[in-house]
Amino acid sequence: MPEILEQHRRFLPHYQETQQIFSLTWRLDGELPQQILLSIREIQAAMAELRAKAPGSICPDLIKKYRQCIERYDEQLGRHPATGINLCHSDIAPILTHAFHFYDSNLYELHAYCVMPNHVHLLLKPHADDPENGVLLSDIVRRIKGYTAKQIQKQGYSGNKIWRADYFDRYIRSDKDYAYTVAYILYNPVKASLVKEYSEWDYSYFWKEFA
User: Fold this and answer.
1) pLDDT, tens only, 26-84
2) From CA 40, how far away is CA 94, in angstroms rounded?
3) What average pLDDT does range 5-33 have in this prediction?
4) Cα–Cα distance between 124 and 148 in angstroms, integer?
5) According to the model, what pLDDT value does residue 130 have?
6) What are residue 174's phi and psi, to 5 degrees?
7) In terms of Cα–Cα distance, which of 193, 209, 35 is closest to 116?
8) φ/ψ (deg, to 5) at 76
C-alpha cells in the first residue's frame, strides 16, 4: 500500500503518496480579473468535494469536474497577458528550464514541462526512497520557486515578488490520464494562440518522443 508522504493545506489542500506522478502548475504573482478568480474558487470547491470523500474511494465524476475546472482556469490564464514579467522572455525562460532539468534525477524524475508567459506546468515523479531528502512536493516547489525567483530578480526585477503563493497539483491515475496530461501540457501554447504547432514552442519538453 502506498505510503502517505504529505498531507497539508495552505491556501489549497495538497496530498501526496509514494510512487505517484504529479501534474503541477503555478503562476506569477499579481492581480487577476474576476473571471479567473471565479475559476479558482470553482477549483477550490471541487477539491473540497474530493477531499470529503473516503480515502481510496473512486469518484470519476468528481475527478472529471476537478480536471475541467483546472483546464478552464488554465486556458483563461493562458489568454491573460503577462504584466511586468514575461516568463517566456529570452533572459527568463532559460532560468526556468535550467532549474527544471537541474533538479531532475536529484529530487524527481522529470517527464514534461511547459513555460507560459505567466505560469508554468510540470509533470514529474518525486523520488520516494528517502522522504527526508527533498521528495515532498512542497519541498520541490519551494526549491524551484526560491532559486528561480532569485535568478529572475537578478535580471532587473529586484524588489518584485515573483511567484504567487501555493500551487495546484493533481496525481496521474492511469496510462490514459498520463497521455492526456502530456498532450494538454504540450498543447498549452497552441490553445493560447502563441504558436500553431506544439513543436514550435521553445519552452516545452517531454522526456520521450511525442507523436
Assistant:
1) 989 876 667 777 877 887 787 777 767 655 566 778 777 877 887 777 777 767 766 67
2) 28
3) 66
4) 18
5) 56
6) -165, 170
7) 193
8) -65, -40
Residue 15 near residue 7, CB atoms below 8 Å: yes
The span from the CA of 46 to the CA of 170, in Å, is 12
pTM of the model: 0.76
The C-alpha cell of 14 is what?
495538497
* pLDDT single digits (tens) 142-168: 999 999 999 999 998 887 789 988 888
Identity at 153, one-letter amino acid code: Q
Spatial separation of the C-alpha atoms in residues 137 and 16, rounded to whole Å: 7
- Whole-angstrom distance, CA of residue 172 vs CA of residue 20: 7
* Secondary structure (H, E, C), the chain: CCCEEEEEECCCEEEEECCCCEEEEEEECCCCCHHHHHHHHHHHHHHHHHHHCCCCCCCHHHHHHHHHHHHHHHHHHHHCCCCCCCCCCCCCHHHHHHHHHHCECCCEEEEEEEECCCEEEEEEEECCCCCCCCCCHHHHHHHHHHHHHHHHHHHHHCCCCCECCCCEEEECCCHHHHHHHHHHHHCHHHHCCCCCCHHHCCCEEECCCCC
Cell of 203: 519552452
Q: In this model, does residue 5 exceed pLDDT 70?
A: no
